[in-house]
Structure formats: structure tokens, C-alpha cells
Predict the 3D structure of the following.
Amino acid sequence: MDEDKFALVEKVMKDVDNVMMKNAELCAFDIVPVEANFQNKSPVLHLENCLGLESWCVKHVYMYCYSELMDKYFAKPKRKAQKPSSVNAERLTRLLNITLLINPELNSLWNKRREMVLNCFLQKSSELQFSKLVLSRKPKCNDAFAYRRWLLKEIFKDSTLQSNHINSLANDEIYVCDLASDKSANNYHSWNHRIWIINLLKKCKNFDVQFLFIKEYDFSERWLAKHVSDYSCFHYRQFCIENIFLVSVERWSTFDNHINGYNRRSLIKTLGNNFPKDITVQASEADLLTYSDESLVNLLLSYSNKKCNCTVDNVLLCRKIEVLFHELDLNSELLRFYKYHEAMWYHRRFIVHKLISIMYDHFGINRQNGSLVKSSCGKCNLDATSERNAKIVRYDGNRIYSCVLFNVLMNYEKVFIDERRIDGDNYADRHEKYLRFIEGLNNVM
């Protein structure tokens, strides 16, 4: 590289470093298409909280910085690498900053930053800000998300973290995930990072994670209504549904008031429209709204073949059924409005599978190799060994398939499949085959 290019790169590195030091609120970085430097000015652009680099200089800057990093700071045959020290820390930071901003998918360079953090040459808070800057341009950069997770693990090792600091970290991570998901559709890395941070917060004693469950459950519903093909978010929605089952009774009343009892009304409406004709109880929607959780579960499931002494939590059971039927109703509405989206049909399979699993668990059975077999209780494990995995008798199977919940679900699915088939949605036929041959409902469909 000639002296002019050398001077140019040094000037760019210095300008970028000055901008990052003076503005701690930088929120975006990008490479601006400019063919040549006609005005003889610095290619580093800084406007408000945004940093840019003109494209004509990117090749020269990247090759110079990358070559110096590899030559001096990474080991080669018969040559030792320089370790981060107080002498070279500033220079190394500048080289890493510009190189990773241009090409962040270099895990070796992120590892070098980890080494500098452990040696206290870089601060964890400033590193979170830097990785956020990287993600503003490359929202699907898994190395940047992995680096953030490593930083957060290091931060959460401090047992003296205050609740307000944890809240701030949680809000920042959720915000970063929002930005990454907005910038790139089906951003698996962003949604996976969101799941990771919530699982991390579950372990924090001085953080109200149940409020976050409710907040994220509500957020995912609004997001999916606008991004019906984002299969990564559907996976996150399923994670939120599992979490909402963990909400305590006190928090559940707050959640129920927040949605104005919509889950219960959605379930009651579905029951009223899909009651099997041959059952003795034909309650109106107004009557069903007066039912307690215990009474509603008894109406829907009534019979159990379990032989263990575990008590059934009918409140939790009713809560799960409410949430899943609300989800089924929401899915039906979206499929009517946004036709032919495969991701929504896959999500519907998840909902139906969860409802069927609830029934199987209630009746003490599961499905193995296409057959219904008796299952041992996972809590008390009191079932006799000889009875485990024994095939159920025809009488038990008839009791399962004759319960109100099973018949309501099957009637709901049959009507919806016929409706979508008439509308020309080929995924309806696939869904019916899934119910018949994967869920094993060929004899009752």
C-alpha cells in the first residue's frame, strides 16, 4: 500500500474512533454508496446519531486493518502473537472497530474483543453499544448476538445487580431484538436471542419475569398480525404461550383484566358453536360464562383414567384451554384474511397438538408408534411397571373420543378445513392429512 493510501486509512480510523468516543448514543452504521472522493474530504460521515463510511474507501480500509490484525495480533507459524496490553490496547481497539463494522462475521476478532474485556481494556457497557451498532447494519449477524450473550453472562455473574439495572438491560435487549427483526424478515437469530434473554431473566430473583411474559405474549400477537409469514416469530409465539401457562394466579387476574376476559369469551363462543349434537348438556353462551373453572373443566373433560393420587389443577387446565382456543380463533381469523400462508398452518398444527396433548395427559395416555398406550405419571410415578406402555382398551379410547373438548375441537377443524378448501387453499388438505396420519385421528375425522 502506498503512502497516500496509508495516510487515508489512518485518517479514517482516527475519525471513526473520534465519532465513537464523542457520541455514546450512536444507533446506526452503514456504508454509503459513493463512487469516488470528488470533494477531497473525509469519507467518514456523522449525522445526529448515525455513522457512515463512503463505499469507495472500504476496500482499502478493510484490507489494511485486517492485514495488520492478522500479522501482529494472531499467531502464525514461528511467530508469536502480541497479547492485548496497555501499550497496544488503543491501537488494537481501533483496528477491531473498523474491521468488524465493515465485516462482523469474523469470530476470531470477536474472540479478541472478549480477551480485551476480560483484561479490562474494554468496558462491557460500551461493548453492548458497539455490537448494537454492528447489528444496525447486519441484523442477522449471529457472531454479534453471540457476543452480546457472552457479555450479558459476564454482567449477570455480579450477584449485587440492582433491579433497576436488570430492567434497563432487559429493555435494551428487547429493543435491539425489535430493531433487528424490523430490519430483516424471518430473522431467526434475533428471535432466538430474545428467547435466550427471557430464559436468562427467569433465573433472576429480583426481576418480575411474569410481567415480561404477559408483555411479550401481547407483543407477539400484534407482531404476527402484521408479519404473517415470519415463521421465526411463530416459533417465538409458541414460546410465549408456554410461558403464559407459568403465570401465577395473582398475575393471571391482572392479565385477564388487561385483555378484558377475551380468552374466556373466545372459548365460550367456540364451544357454543361446536357442541356435539348427541351430548346431554346444551348450555348457552350466557350460561357457560357463569361456569367456574372447575365446572368448565368437568364439562369438557369430566372423566379421567389416571390411577395416581396426584390432584388435578383445574384452574391451570382451564387456563391452558382458554389460551389455546383463543390462539386457534386468532389463527383462523388470520388465515381467512391472509390466504395461503404456510407458516400459519404450521402454527395451527402446534395449537391442535397442544390441545390433544392436554387431553391425553388428562386421561393418562400418550401416543407411541401410532398406538395409544397408558402412561405413567411424571410426578409421582406410581403406575405399575407392568402397566406402563400397555395398550389401552377400546372402552378407554371411546371415552377419550367422546369427551366434549375432543368433539368440539374436531368439529371446529372439520368446518374450518372445508371452508378453506372451498376457498382454494391447498394447505387445508395437508392439514387434514396431518390430523389423520400424524396425530392418528384417521378413524375419527
User: Anything to note?
Assistant: The beta strands are 28-32, 44-47, 50-54, 365-368, 371-374. The chain has 19 helices and five strands.
